[in-house]
Amino acid sequence: MSPDKMIRMANQIATFFKTQPGEDAPAKVAAHISDFWEPRMRAQLHDHVATGGAGLDALVIAADARIARPRERA
Amino acid sequence: MKDFIIPDDRDMGTPAKTGKPVTLTIDGFEVTVPEGTSVLRAAAEIGIQIPKLCASDNLEAFGSCRLCAVEIEGRRGTPASCTTPVLPGMVVDTNSAKVRKIRKGVMELYISDHPLDCLTCSANGDCELQDMAGAVGLRDVRYKAPEHGGMANHFAARNTSGEANPEWLPKDDSNPYFSYDPSKCIVCNRCVRACEEVQGTFALTIAGRGFDSRVSAGGAGDDFLSSDCVSCGACVQACPTATLQEKSIIEMGTPDRSVVTTCAYCGVGCSFKAELQGDDLVRMVPYKHGKANRGHSCVKGRFAYGYANHRDRILNPMIRDTIDQPWREVSWDEALSFAANRLRGLQQTYGKKSIGVITSSRCTNEETYLVQKLTRAVFGNNNTDTCARVCHSPTGYGLGQTFGTSAGTQDFDSVEQTDVVIVIGANPTDGHPVFASRLKKRLRAGAKLIVIDPRRIDLVKSAHIQAAHHLALTPGTNVAVVTALAHVIVTEGLMDEAFIRERCDWDEFQVYAEFVSDARHSPEATQLLTGVPAGELRAAARTFARGGNGAIYYGLGVTEHSQGSTTVMGIANLAMLTGNIGRPGVGVNPLRGQNNVQGSCDMGSFPHELPGYRHVKLSEAREIFETTWGVEIDPEPGLRIPNMLDAAVEGSFKGLYCQGEDILQSDPDTKHVAAGLAAMDCVIVHDLFLNETANYAHVFLPGSTFLEKDGTFTNAERRINRVRRVMAPKNGYADWEVTQLLANAMGAGWAYTHPSQIMDEIAATTPSFAGVDYALLEEKGSVQWPCNQAHPDGTPLMHVDGFVRGKGRFIVTEYVATDEKTGPRFPLLLTTGRILSQYNVGAQTRRTDNVVWHEADVLEIHPHDAENRGLNDGDWVRLASRSGETTLRAKLTDRVSPGVVYTTFHHPDTQANVITTDYSDWATNCPEYKVTAVQVSLSNGPTDWQEDYAAQATRARRILPAAE
């Protein structure tokens, strides 16, 4: 998908979890994205973070390491 | 053919009552009935049918025909048994010589003003007047018009001298589905009462007095079509004569058999008797034992079935190499092997995950289950999604987070015990009309209503109902309004603390209470943003919190927003705050859009969930299906519909099997959808018609209608209703058979021979369906899931003794403005919806006479905004957003507020979704249909886009003549 769209979707998720109580917002963002984003989308997000993550909310970048890496199967 | 045996379907005369038992004697037989029951009904309970004309068990007793007169020991006169309640020890004689003589006299008077053309009358064989004349033994009529006097009847157009009879009125054939013939009317008032009591529209009345009394639709000068009549047909069903009669009966005659089945339109899931001659459908009559509809229907379910025989229906499979070619009709074998080879070829070239499916929320549970099984077990991925993506996916997420299940909490009967109702983001009189009638009945009995909607929907004020509060919020501010309601409830101490302590997580509640108590959530702080006056919002919050049983009903005006899931959580918070969960009359009630959208979600249509809402990452859930299906299941979530289209544009998603869903018309941002479809190499459309999506398809597999197959639909109450085949599939196969053929063409080796076997597989793999099989459905008529060992009779009410997740969870709901904002270029907000006579993309209803009520989408605009733009009512206007533009006619109305415009998406030549954007709910990707910044201006005619679209559609729909 277009980078802008991916960035907006990731930032929307971060925006919600930022409002939630508790210290574990990066884990919650990572869990949500791992549960609902297809591997291609997660890979695109990882790649974007790896190249600087322009436009992404800091919380998304903080969550990235905990987002499940796509499990590739034959 | 093994037909379902229809249970006792007699008209018991007056409605059932509940009360303490009363014992009386009727014709020497003792009978015990609830207090308040009429003598007429008590007699019917023991099989004694007292003659009657004006009584019907779906209407309150009226006592006008006097045919049901009886004698009661110790009482003077001959009281009407319909209006006489039973008393203990009462001794009734229903057939004394005296009452027999009275009845014969009554009938003689009726017949003296009724034509005697029984043999050629359209009600012949289905006429209560005829039956009653027989029952009382009427043999002659002594009353005649005076020889030299004026006419004294209503049925002869001219007298014997050829002079016009001023009492005679011509037939009113203005309604496309039924006719009104005043000459056959006996003024029993049943139609008028049905319009009032059952439907709640009050379109009919009796005009005139005495001999001049006439059934009249609307005001003077109106006919049925121009009146307020919504064509629900309750009056036609109530009419004991040929006065109000289905045109199909007039044309075809009376049916000779009937089959109970379930409507294939909205999520109410009404039960109907399909009445047939051979395999020709004569009429649909709402089934009185149907637990969702209790004998009522709307114009769509009762009348709009003609699409099943429409000439546009495609009955042969078709293929083409590329979408610029015309279609070629081929055999099923050729179409299926073409499709299978293409799909497998795509997987070889582009990978296993390069293809997927969209299941249909219009097809049966069994069909949907097979389509998701196709992708999971045969394609080997989880790329399955369904129309719920674009409607109620936030319900699944929001209620799952707060309550532990996406299930709506109540049955529809629950509304009869509610005291205060919030309707938010739903327009039930148009979208869920039979539920609306049941709600309006309760409102007329005194329940209070709070409407939260940008538009002044009919529920805000219509005949004999009025909302206590209408919070006409700015589109996109639901979360702010719902949180402000909670603010008032918490800060004014109106919450149900005992309930919260017992049933919810108290610590989370503390955090939540602190959050909502903040002054920034007060109605005073949010009113500039939401447009809702603070005083009105406070009053609404107090009404809801203090009003007794409080129920919340909501629709797509809640879910189809950037914060759709957050609003659903906010609604769940409100219900928990006020203790309105777990008993009749309360609850959180999502009004589902399509007939089986609940079922399609239950059946594992979502890319992250196996049937029964179990995430694909859970190995214990996967194992159940891996064992049953003998395949390995991908543990990764698949693509959602918008993601599929994005991946298609990028080139990694190449093939789609789309069953019974028209994403090009129904999904947002049409240009993007078209680009995604155009980028695929194998689009398989399985549908009744060459829908809009089929313009981009390579394979067309003809579908079957709900009349042509067996299966089940699950309605908004989680009620699993049987769909019964009443005729053979015109295309040759039921849809589940077509999916099986495709799967087998790809090597699946499936061998289902009846949908009941598919349901058995669902029950074996899905705990909430463990107790469901066709035998149970035959026995009980319907059942609400969960239905298993713990709930063998199903579950009418959820969360009775505790939430599914244990403790109910309050979730903080911070308002976040959508990115879709008005500005100088696009200063107005467009919100979209639907109307009564059309359904979804209109593929079915546009192919019926329902088009007389809505032949085109129109743009509702406030007169103030229209004046600023120089627009008059009926002008062609251009509607533009950053996504696209279209043209349609303007309708000036103050139902919308200044700054807000509204339209429907029922017609592809308007294609409202070319305007909507790709913004979506943060949690689920449910599109933000309800908020688009737009501009409206005068137009000369169709936009270039509309003309290009129409030209492409025409080209894409060419079909080569079949080869000899």
3D structure, described in words:
The complex is a heterodimer of chains A (74) and B (964). The N and C termini of chain A lie far apart (24 Å). Chain A is globular. With 74 residues, chain A is mainly α. Chain A has helices at residues 3-18, 25-36, 39-50, 58-64. Chain A is built from 4 helices and no strands. Helices cover 29% and strands 16% of the residues of chain B. In chain B, strand 6 and strand 7 form a beta hairpin. Chain B has 964 residues and is of the alpha/beta class. The chains are: A mainly alpha (74), B alpha/beta (964). The interface between A and B is medium-sized, with 24 and 37 residues.
- Rough shape of chain B? globular
> How do the SSEs of chain A run, as a string of H and E?
HHHH
Uncertain segments of chain A of ≥5 residues (pLDDT<50)? none
Task: Measure the end-to-end span of chain A.
Answer: 24 Å
| Terminal-residue CA separation of chain B | 36 Å
Beta-strand segment tally of chain A? 0
Q: How many structural domains are formed by the residues of chain A?
A: 1
DSSP strand (E) fraction of chain B? 15-25%
Extract low-pLDDT stretches of chain B: none
Structural class computed from helices and strand pairing of chain B: alpha/beta
- How are the strands of the largest sheet of chain B arranged? 13-12-27-26-25-14-15
Radius of gyration based on Cα positions of chain A? 12 Å
Key attributes of the depicted protein:
heterodimer; A: 74 residues; mainly alpha; 4 helices; globular; B: 964 residues; seven-stranded mixed beta sheet
List the helices and strands and how they pair.
The complex is a heterodimer of chains A (74) and B (964).
Chain A: H1 3-18, H2 25-36, H3 39-50, H4 58-64
Helix pairs in contact in A: 1-2, 1-3, 2-4
Chain B: E1 21-26, E2 29-34, H1 39-45, E3 71-72, E4 91-93, H2 97-112, H3 128-136, E5 178-180, H4 190-199, E6 204-207, E7 214-217, H5 234-238, E8 244-246, H6 247-252, E9 257-262, E10 271-277, E11 280-286, H7 299-303, E12 318-319, E13 328-329, H8 332-350, E14 355-359, H9 365-379, E15 384-386, H10 393-402, E16 420-424, H11 428-431, H12 433-444, E17 448-452, E18 461-462, E19 465-466, E20 469-471, H13 478-491, H14 497-503, H15 506-517, H16 523-530, H17 534-546, E21 550-554, H18 556-559, H19 564-577, E22 587-590, H20 597-602, E23 609-610, E24 614-615, H21 619-629, H22 641-650, E25 655-659, H23 663-666, H24 670-678, E26 682-687, E27 699-702, E28 711-714, E29 719-723, H25 735-745, H26 755-765, H27 774-780, E30 782-784, E31 828-833, E32 858-861, H28 863-868, E33 876-880, E34 885-892, E35 900-904, E36 932-938, H29 944-956
Parallel strand pairs in B: 1-4, 14-15, 14-25, 16-17, 16-21, 17-20, 21-22, 25-26, 26-27, 31-35, 32-34
Antiparallel strand pairs in B: 1-2, 3-4, 5-8, 6-7, 9-10, 10-11, 12-13, 12-27, 18-19, 23-24, 28-29, 29-30, 31-36, 32-35, 33-34, 33-36
